[in-house]
Amino acid sequence: MSPSTPPILRSKKYEHASLFAPENLLREARRQKDIPEGQVPSICLLDPDGDILDNLLSTNKAALNPYWACYHTKLYNVEYEGFKLGIVACAVGASFAVLIAEELFASGCQLLISVTSAGMITPNKKPPFFILIERAWRDEGTSYHYLPPSDYSYINREILTLLEDTFSELTVPVNKGAAWTTDAPFRETAMAIEQAKSLGILAVEMEAAALYAFAQARQEAVVCFAHVTNQMGNVEVDFEKGASNGSRDALELIAATAKEFASANKPFNGEIP
Q1: Rounded to 5 degrees, what angle do the CA atoms 127, 130, 136 make?
Q2: Which domain holds residue 26?
Q3: Which residues does the chain have with pLDDT short of 70?
């Protein structure tokens, strides 16, 4: 390998297991915090903005999960539309999101849904609206620890097929397409945005590429949605998410997704299209 190869691409053996496993961290957290053994709900949600959880807490619809042993976050149990969900809020960015994903699946999660706010790249309709992210441009670092270099990471093909006709009746439109995952939101330059537009990318966010790479490498079920709420502050009234800071519409989306998975009644691995 060339000396000019960046460190993130050196000494990678993707088939090798990590010596540091999420189970190790959870075991020690349980010991130190005297947390009992137990599992998280089978369907869990990453809520990077925290607005969904804030809304549920304000209406007394969320309660702390007593078994979640993560050092860095709290997990709340919620019952919504007949589904038991676990919600972790404010895990922003690729590395944090995947750290939490590793620990959730090690704790009993079987489906992880991420709903993250995003900036509009290719004008489609006026925000807010949702995008089911089919592929994510890998302009971050975490995905390269799970999969060899490539331009995109992808949603599982079977999951995409399952959700094909799921969202047509929702209050807020759900598009399907590509997102750009970045680690540096304040380095979204005009040149970078034009490049993303030329690739047909619809929105920019901070987690999907890494979560999909993790899902493929670990053969876990992950679905990422971009909640397009802004034009990166380049219009006078921006970052408007809708009713209850977008939580009402996001919960409708989450419930529809959970319903489809429940009806499928089958496991999904991380196979790409």
Answers
A1: 115
A2: 21-264
A3: 1, 266-273
